[in-house]
Amino acid sequence: EATADMGSFSVVEGVGGVKPLSEGDKADIKKNATEKVVTEHDITFKSTAVQPQGDNAATVTGDLQIMGKTNPVQVKLSESDGKVAANFTVVQSKWGIKPFSAMMGALKVRDEIPVELEATLPE
Questions:
Q1: Where in 1-123 does DSSP place strands (E)?
Q2: Which of 95, 85, 122 minimizes the C-alpha distance to 37?
């Protein structure tokens, strides 16, 4: 089981747009995400199954709760040099979230968002 605060997430990049996201654009997206979109900041994940993928990787199936709504997700985990990386995709509409849009629709966030997490394992 894991819990994360929406405020701890950051926008890393934007792809497919006319111009790259500026640092101001990234800050605006994060501000809107935390103040207007995901107003219940705690996001929780509870695993229901683990499928090992070799010595240092696994696929973890579980339930992701955002804004009080739960949906299943599959998380790809890998470990290297005391760090764990997790990758999965969130389809915002499955949680009742309307994808972010600004500048009269010129700046849009896709419904499907790739999420990448990294954590350092305790010694």
A1: 2-5, 42-52, 57-66, 69-80, 83-91, 101-102, 107-108, 112-120
A2: 95
- Measured between its terminal Cα atoms, the distance across the chain in Å is 20
Looking up tokens 């994360």, which residue turns up?
Answer: 4
CB contact at 8 A, 76 and 56: no
* Residue pLDDT, tens place only, 35-93: 777 767 688 999 999 999 988 999 999 999 998 899 999 999 999 999 999 999 999 89
CA 7 to chain centre: 12
CA distance 109 to 30: 11
Flag whether the pTM goes above 0.85.
no
